[in-house]
């Protein structure tokens, strides 16, 4: 106990040491910069004269360089730190056209012409806007010039600077909500879904009422279903799926109970993902004190929260770890049966695909149809219209799990890149696990060689394209959901850059199983306990090495070497930490990680991953005024959003995700294996497909 307290104290001291501000911002100069976001009063613009046509346009702006201006020189100098600072010569404003016309009404024609400085020179952003908001050509022809004149009238008067601009989109007070065939189809499918849930629940209740009175308890919903017909009819029963979701018992023949801390891992990592997305979406939509995020990026301890390399490595490694454990458990049940590798491989992939796709497809359908119609505000189309356009255009990229490689800048449901990586890695991991099973004496060589090849594959793009060794957020790219960030497309989302994590997870599972077979206990040695506690500050120190990329221009050879060593070191630290937790090292942390509530929260991970960004769009893209951000407000936002997102995920899981897994079990269970062939009953292949008996996906 004293050793536990000692290391907890050391860890707290370590956190205090890294909580330093590694940069300085001269606020007296900073507050003279034009604000990055500014929105005219949206509703007031429309309803001051409701009988007249009123137009409100969102506009990209760029300041024209002027070396004679001290303010411009200060902006230019501040922009030099292009990793931690926003481009303060680029703005995003909401302009009420009627107010704009009133501003210019006293100027002569020649004076107005002098104010016009042309369109935005950023061709990539202009082309992106033209492609996304392709119906706005008429508004751009009509209002681009007057908007630019109004902006220059303001900027020349307040800042002695001139700007170029380009309209992104315009709203009017005469806009009407119209439904097309796809919208109607989505509504019909949703009605059918709710009807299935209602009818299945009523049928389940009917069967319950037919039992003797003393047996009409909730225990009925926990009893196994006896035949395929009832499996199908009761698949959508809300009551039965509720008890499936909240079931806390464990299979005594599996490692589930011993590894239940993995559910806590998934929840904590998803909490960090939501925190990152909250910060990113709020930056994209704007807030008053933009210096908050710039100071944030100057502080290493806070930087960890929004730079996701270590976070995503943890996700991938816990996924690989659980895939290995599930595979081993079910292969052990196949003794006495001849394993045919190729059929087994493709059946595993088939069930994995149908396990993932229905919920994702429903999310794509929602975002491409009525999502845009559910909100309104100056920023709503900025968030929601890209989902509608890109989901209708690139739905096939998402549903075939290619969005981490194909058309990344115009992907539908941008957060779903992780699901693509997970499925692609599952294909690779399944092949490797089957190969190891068929050649057990060469299993270590196969796995070690796979990790080495994956490490080299991750290093090659870093050398070839002169990229950073690790992905880290640039302040400016936050404003565009990282779509224009080359590192995001080439380092963060591709499978070959993340495969090391999954393979290290497989290695962790293999070492864990070996230790179990020889009854090896890490907790028997104080030295091993010491190393376990040392892993926590070592991991933080490893993550903090990304600060070098903020401070220095790292040569590509060193960046590639650092990225490779980082991934391998993180994998080894993760392996030791997981095996230590499984061996009950960790004092109160073990008890906390094993709390029953995480069993339920862990099962919601996939639903949360699919729906979270759409919900956050509702939170941030409907704002009318800019808010002032602080650490405490960010904490309150995150906690509130987490509660709401998980509540919605709880509902979605019961009405859609669990019914699909129930039907999938019927499909699996209906295939009765003859002896000496591949065993593919409900328990085995459902687990081989990386889902446990309760249907929660390994993510």
Describe the structure.
There is one protein chain. The chain folds into three domains: 30-172, no CATH class; 181-245, no CATH class; 261-668, no CATH class. It is 62% helix and 4% strand. The chain has helices at 2-18, 27-30, 42-47, 70-79, 97-104, 109-115, 123-132, 137-158, 181-209, 228-233, 238-245, 261-285, 291-296, 300-306, 309-332, 341-367, 380-399, 417-438, 443-464, 475-478, 486-492, 499-517, 526-544, 547-551, 556-582, 588-593, 597-603, 605-620, 631-669, 682-688; strands spanning 37-39, 55-63, 90-96, 163-172. A four-stranded mixed sheet has the order 1-3-2-4. Mean pLDDT is 85; it is low at 9-22 and 671-699. It is globular, with a radius of gyration of 28 Å. The two termini are 33 Å apart. Helix 16 (341-367) runs parallel beside helix 28 and helix 23 packs antiparallel against helix 25. It contains 30 helices and four strands.
Number of domains: 3
Q: Provide the low-confidence segments as ranges.
A: 9-22, 671-699
Label the structural class. Answer: mainly alpha
- Relative strand content: under 5%
What is the average of the pLDDT values?
85
Put simply, the count of helices is 30
If you compute it from the alpha carbons, what radius of gyration comes out, rounded to the nearest whole angstrom?
28 Å
* Total count of strands: 4
Termini separation (Å)?
33 Å
Largest sheet: 4 strands, mixed
The geometry reads as globular
Q: What oligomerization state is this entry in?
A: single chain
Q: Kindly report the spatial arrangement of strands forming the biggest sheet.
A: 1-3-2-4
Q: What is the helix content? A: 55-70%
